[in-house]
Amino acid sequence: MNLCKNIIIPAATVLLLALLLTRCDKIDPPYLEDVYFEPADTSRTVLVEKFTGHLCPNCPEAAAEAHQLKDIYGHNLIIISVHAGFFSRTQSAPYDSDYTTSAGDALDNHFGFQSYPIGLVSRQKPGGQYRMNVAEWSYYVDSLANDPPAAMLDLNISFNASTRQTDITVNGSFLKDLPGDYNLAIVITEDSIISAQKNNNPQLGDTPDIDPYVHLHMLRTAVNGTWGEHLITAPRKDQPIPEKTYSYTLKDQWEESNCMVIAYIYRYDDACGTELEVIQAAQQAIQ
Amino acid sequence: MQKVTVITVLILCWAFNPMHAQQPGRLGGNMEMNFQSYSPDSAIGADTVRERVAIQSFANLIYNRGNLEVGARYEIYGPPLTGIDVDYEGHGIAHRYLTYRHDLIELTAGHFYEQFGSGLTLRSYREWALGYDNAIDGLRVRIKPGRGITLTGVAGRHRNYWRSSPGIIRGVDGQVHVNRLLPFLEESKTIIMVGGSFVSRFQEDRSLIYKIPENVGIYSARADVIRGGLRFSGEYASKINDPSAVNGFIYKPGEAFLAELMYTRRGMGITLTGKRMDNMSFKSDYNATGIPLEINYLPPLSPQHSWELANVYPYATQPNGEMGLLGSIYYMFPRNSTLGGKYGTRLTVDYSRIHDIHREAPTDTTTVGQPGTLGYTSDFFKTGDKLFFRELSIGLEKRINPKWKVDLKYMNTLYDPLIKGDAGHDLVRANIAIAAIYFTFMPGHSLKAELQSLTTDQGELHEKDYSAGDWAMVLLEYNHGGYFLNVRDLYNHRNPSAGIDALHYLSFAAGVTRGAHRLALSWGRQREGISCVGGVCRPEPAASGFGITLTSNF
Amino acid sequence: MKRLLLILLPVMLVFPVIPQDTGLPSVTVTDLNGVPVDFSQLHNDGNPVILSFWATWCTPCLREMNAIAEVYEQWQEETGVLFIAVSIDDSRTRSRVLPLINSNYWDYDFFLDPNHDLKRAMNVNLIPHTFLLNGDMEVVWQHTSYSEGMEVKMYEMIRKLSAGESLDED
């Protein structure tokens, strides 16, 4: 009883009062940070896979954030817009276009996303989860873009306009000793697809529909499968990347001058698939 | 996690140590198990669920002995039911705590639930049916230094599915019952209670674009005054700059005001509630959006309905700004009067009206809500142009004779689909009529019939909205000796969406209750909708299949 | 470690051999005038108690309370039973509690549990959830959900408790 009265209660009271005095941080304008990025000679290129859908009214915000980041990080940031899931269903016009892909659906299923917009930043999983809210992207994009790269990745494209055949050659070299298995995945995206998009944010355009809306970085196909194919096991520093070549015939409805080929190397442990980090990526326009 | 598990096991071992046999204390708990199978049913918009079946369950155990209480909850989701966040998938000890109580002090280590005042600054709670649990994992101290005074301090992180919130929450609250504190007021006819709280969140600034305040504080003051049948209760809260994904990274301080005035005496009651919320979302992660990680609670200002068709257009608080009024009348027409009849007739009338707040650009060079600016300025007393919600509801309850009882309800609702996340649509005007008839035809045997209707003025919609249009519902239920059996047909007889025809949602349910154990089986279609408990709403996808719910208390 | 727990937990779930329910939990609720009350201190002078969890939005709860209201006076005269009604309404619906009580002419003992502290301590899942307590405030029977006529069965048990007879649970 005495212990309680004489020690615990005063101590608890002091603790409560100390909490009361916790300071608050009042921010004065300007509220924006000065952001700049200086690429090194060999930089790590960050891959943002943005999951979206034309029926997702909060997705234009994610697109705006991605563009803002692209302006800062330039070549060191690659964006893929994956149209998948509930918000990419087709409906009556103007939402009658199907932008889903089997690769996009497979990724959406694998990562178990429910609420859109959501993203993957080089498939990092801080705190054990892959999903990353839009507002968190910038932090991870910046820290990864400033990381020394683990590999140099070169991507060469030759396009035959008459047959629409695209030949893709990938080579390069590793810059570090790395553990585990690595896959190489090649995808094609298309810019400037014009159709309708749901929108909730009057800052970004009309609500509830922005029509016409310009969809950028839309995932069109995975050239060598959703998960790509095995590239190498436990590469050593200065070991060259085994040269890989692919051929793909562009679909007629894709505008070749808006198409990009993206290659990325990522950790792939077949046993449990728990590590999928993208260690390097590269992008090249088809024309 | 490992450490936590070890500690839990140790505590439980202690609790069951046979040395304690003479003084065994008290062990209790409860559990619930939900099972649902999913059949693809494209007619109602039910997508294929990969796993085909979902099962989720929890079991709570609480052990009390003397001054100590220990508790733990095990949860398993394999996977969670559709609509519950998939991040719950997995299993483990989701909740564990130890509480020590003495005359003047109470200490809790581990997970706890807490509410300061009406919740404007802090509320942690759990709604299993919604998959909502923002228990704080940390430390709580409650002391009663004098008669009528209670002080509470908390520190910790939110539960965030199977992880913890990035932000740390610290808070204190004081509540004073003035009449009990001051002896000369003990006999006073006027009862006064006052309180205040302060809560702050610490989270590292990880934004490259915005200067994020790492310590964000929110404080409030409240008072309750009672004199006879007249009561007043009010709380004001204010929050400093808190740019977040919810408010679109604006730096304006937030404020909230909630006031209730009530007069009541036997047979009747009148209440008037006013509310204003301005930029009051406060989460333990400034990057988070959606339902999880709320530090505070902003009660929605509209009556909560339990009838199916009264919940097609449920109101949910708009944390970025709203202001409104709710007036309610409760009256019992006395027995043996014309309107009262032999048993009296109860009348409830509610009228609520909720607007957006008024917003003006803070400077000539920025727009309202522009990220990275103050955002806007707002006149406290001015309502915005936008009407979010208006509802009139009239309810009558009447017992006709010992065998028959009738509940009637009429509602007229004006609803902005923005409330459920669809901006830029026309307001929906809905008329809802409900009749429930209870008939006890033999002692212990009763029948219930519900007839419900909802009609709207919606014109053609180019997107698919499975809850749009006109609805009718018939439910028949038979109850006897703890058993129930019901059949329900929910009929969407007009849907203005392109591509949706008139649809029946037929379902059957049966169940048995024995003491505190309840088993319910269901089979049929569930409509796509929103389910809300308290202030939290979550979308509920359509489903078709077989379900089992088991609840138990031991 | 986790495996051990998985084994341990089911064992504990079928562990009702430990005597339970000696009195009510020490949780603070408030009365309708905001006075904090330690729930473990409640008693009814050795007479039985009905303890019921309810909310203003729970229609079966209101039906149960109305049904008992019809016979409550008679029950009290015959057995001295006390009906304690704990509202779990949160700050959204809290202001509806008192007008609803008054407009129904209910004469029960009311307490407020707005953040469900008592509800959790009593392991209540669904409401209505009604407990029957003996004169020592020990739970002797409990029931969840309500259907018409259930109060008749409850009253048989209250009479037995009041007369000091044992309850034979079915």
Task: Please sum up the structure shown.
The complex is a heterotrimer of chains A (287), B (554) and C (170). Chain A is of the alpha+beta class and 287 residues long.
- CATH homologous group name of chain A: Glutaredoxin
- Helical fraction of chain A equals 10-25%
The helix tally of chain A amounts to: 4
Low-confidence stretches of chain B: none
How much is the average pLDDT of chain B? 89
Task: Walk me through the structure.
- The complex is a heterotrimer of chains A (287), B (554) and C (170).
- Chain A has four helices and 13 strands.
- With 287 residues, chain A is of the alpha+beta class.
- In chain A, the strands form four sheets. In chain A, strands 6, 9, 10, 12 and 13 form a five-stranded antiparallel β-sheet that branches. Chain A has a three-stranded mixed β-sheet with strand order 2-1-3. In chain A, strands 4-5-11 form a three-stranded antiparallel β-sheet, with no helix packed on it.
- The mean pLDDT of chain A is 88.
- Chain B has 554 residues and is mainly beta.
- Chain B folds into two domains: 102-298, no CATH class; 306-331 and 338-514, no CATH class.
- Chain B is 3% helix and 56% strand.
- Chain B contains two helices and 31 strands.
- Chain B has helices at 2-15, 178-181; strands spanning 26-37, 53-65, 68-77, 90-101, 105-112, 114-116, 122-124, 126-127, 132-133, 136-146, 149-160, 163-164, 168-177, 190-202, 215-227, 230-239, 254-265, 268-278, 321-333, 345-357, 383-401, 404-415, 428-442, 445-456, 470-480, 483-494, 503-514, 517-526, 529-533, 536-540, 543-553.
- In chain B, the strands form four sheets. Chain B has a 24-stranded antiparallel barrel. Chain B has a two-stranded antiparallel ribbon with strand order 6-7.
- The longest helix of chain B is centred in the N-terminal third of the chain and has 14 residues, at 2-15.
- With 170 residues, chain C is of the alpha/beta class.
- In chain C, helix 2 (59-79) runs parallel beside helix 5 (150-162).
- Chains B and C meet through helix 1, strand 1, strand 2, strand 4 and strand 17 of B and helix 1, helix 2, helix 3, helix 4 and strand 7 of C.
Spell out the key features of this protein.
heterotrimer, A: 287 residues, alpha+beta, Glutaredoxin, five-stranded antiparallel β-sheet, 4 helices, 13 strands, 18% helix, globular, C: 170 residues, five-stranded mixed β-sheet, two-stranded antiparallel sheet, 7 strands
